[in-house]
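Incident log, support desk, overnight shift.

02:14 A customer reports that sequence design results differ from what the structure should imply. Their input is reproduced verbatim below. On-call engineer (initials T.W.) acknowledged and began investigating.
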């Protein structure tokens, strides 16, 4: 007997396989977007390190109606954006007790429109990251190269105490 048609069982197996592949693909896309929706300063390093990249992953938060953070993987702008990291532009300082402000270069899109960057964070493949102090008005976060999570303190004025404590730890180590 010459068979020219698929059996019902063969068609069902194909439909099941296609639906499984579709659900896996869709869930991975939703999972990536869901990750970006749950980003905070406390988990920023951890979340960024979960992406695949060769050299550097970077976010630039731009000052428009809502603070929106653009995601760059190996210098390429991604479609995904972080929209809930800040309610307003934070005050960002150099990693020192002097509290010198950090200024960021404006960003120019391909269409030549320019936007003001109010926060920028880099994470490199070797684990190093931007070192800075970020004051959101509610809390202050201290980012260094050593810690996976930033140190969170209540007030920006406590920065001097933080660095004095670090100095004493180093002196007492010897």
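02:41 Re-run completed on a clean worker. Output:
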């Amino acid at each position: 007997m010459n068979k020219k048609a698929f059996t019902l069982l063969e068609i069902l197996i194909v439909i099941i396989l296609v639906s499984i592949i579709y659900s896996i693909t869709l869930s991975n896309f939703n999972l990536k977007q869901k990750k970006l929706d749950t980003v905070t300063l406390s988990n920023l390093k951890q979340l960024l390190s979960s992406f695949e990249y060769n050299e550097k992953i970077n976010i630039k938060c731009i000052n428009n109606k809502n603070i929106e953070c653009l995601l760059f993987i190996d210098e390429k702008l991604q479609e995904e954006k972080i929209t809930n990291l800040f309610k307003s532009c934070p005050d960002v300082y150099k990693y020192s007790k002097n509290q010198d402000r950090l200024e960021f270069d404006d960003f120019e899109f391909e269409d030549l429109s320019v936007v003001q960057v109010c926060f920028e964070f880099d994470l490199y493949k070797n684990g190093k990251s931007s070192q800075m102090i970020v004051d959101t008005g509610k809390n202050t976060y201290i980012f260094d190269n050593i810690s996976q999570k930033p140190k969170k303190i209540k007030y920006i004025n406590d920065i001097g105490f933080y660095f004095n404590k670090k100095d004493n730890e180093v002196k007492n180590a010897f």
